[in-house]
Amino acid sequence: MDGESLESPYYSKLITVTEGEWAGWQAYPGGDAFEDLTGPFYYRVNPDGTTLSAFRAEAKHMNGGGFMHGGCMMTFADFALFVIARDVTEGHRTVTATFNCELVGTARVGD
After folding, report:
1. What angle do CA 104, 105, 107 make, to 5 degrees?
2. Is there a contact between 58 and 109 (Cβ–Cβ < 8 Å)?
3. Are 35 and 79 in contact (CB under 8 A)?
4. Does residue 111 contact residue 57 with C-beta atoms inside 8 Å?
5. Mind listing the pLDDT tens digit of every residue in the chain (111 residues)?
6. How many CA atoms lie within 13 A of 66 on its CB side?
7. What angle do CA 70, 60, 33 make, to 5 degrees?
8. Which end of the chain, C or N, has fewer beta carbons within 10 A?
């Protein structure tokens, strides 16, 4: 759980999207196998220095009831927390050790 293992073949590769809906946003394809399966997730740094994370809800993100799966929301929230902390964790491998949430809403395909 200390995040120090370098055995994983996955390493963050920050890219800036150059076309389409997410042009100008940044992403880490190939940096996290689970996020690659559940995303893609994007972020951008606003002029005031704050960050905004986003993704487009697809059928693969839905549960059997047609609403976004809670695990997907938690995965995305974990990504957003990483983006917020990216400057202070640069150069260190880290993991989320504890994370709790209460889901108060949902999303559907296209949101």
Report:
1. 155
2. yes
3. yes
4. yes
5. 444 455 555 566 889 999 999 999 999 888 788 888 999 999 999 999 999 999 999 999 999 999 999 999 999 999 999 889 888 877 777 888 888 989 898 899 999
6. 0
7. 80
8. N
Residues in CB range of 26: below 8 A, 6 or more apart: 14, 15, 16, 17, 42, 43, 44, 45
pTM for the predicted model, two decimal places? 0.82
15-16 and 51-54: which strand pairing? unpaired
Q: What angle do CA 5, 6, 12 make, to 5 degrees?
A: 115
- Alpha helix segments (H runs only) across the chain: 33-38, 70-89
